[in-house]
């Protein structure tokens, strides 16, 4: 592994056994690791003991280091001759701002490489036995950010519905607004939805309801980030008959 290099490494959704071999090798040999707050402790324990750790943890509306500052850290540490790993939850190029960081490195003349990770959607779907595509239910998948600039101005019509799966990242805090938006853009209030919380970790949960109940369920169950929302008929494919009965009962109660 050459020095003066930045690696944007996906740490996956949490389970350390889901790391790629390359990701594990890089974090075990890095000089500097710039990491998010969502990286699981078990993965943090795999980092080179001699590496210098720089936390850039952030939560909704609270960034310990702004994105421009993170970019500057990566460039500065690489230009100082260090092998730098930017360790991110999930995959760097799926709502991980990896594109911005790669651009900053390239603009500064710093070599940069992306090491993909299993995204929250992929990991959560697998752990919940929920196929994001299924010949009988969905032939298309869309990923959207549930908290972003101009959310209310975006047109989500057609992103979910018959034959389509919609996966919403960072949507827990705005779930009520998302429900209203999807229904106003034409989606049935009775559409099945699932919330996958802390996917692949020991304390993970998979909750199911109908779109019209999404915001209330999140409040009722005290769902906390990190979590994703899955919208569409694939939710009904996720497991056994008891979950189908549960959704049927909810539909009847909400009717």
UniProtKB/TrEMBL annotation:
Organism for this UniProt entry: Sphingorhabdus lacus
Signal sequence range: none
UniProt enzyme class: transferase
A Gene Ontology BP annotation from the UniProt entry: methylation
Highest taxon in the source lineage: Bacteria
UniProt-recorded name of the protein: uroporphyrinogen-III C-methyltransferase
Domain Tetrapyrrole methylase: 5-214
EC annotation from Swiss-Prot or TrEMBL: 2.1.1.107
Keyword Nucleotide-binding: no
PANTHER family tied to this protein: S-ADENOSYL-L-METHIONINE-DEPENDENT UROPORPHYRINOGEN III METHYLTRANSFERASE, CHLOROPLASTIC, SIROHEME SYNTHASE-RELATED
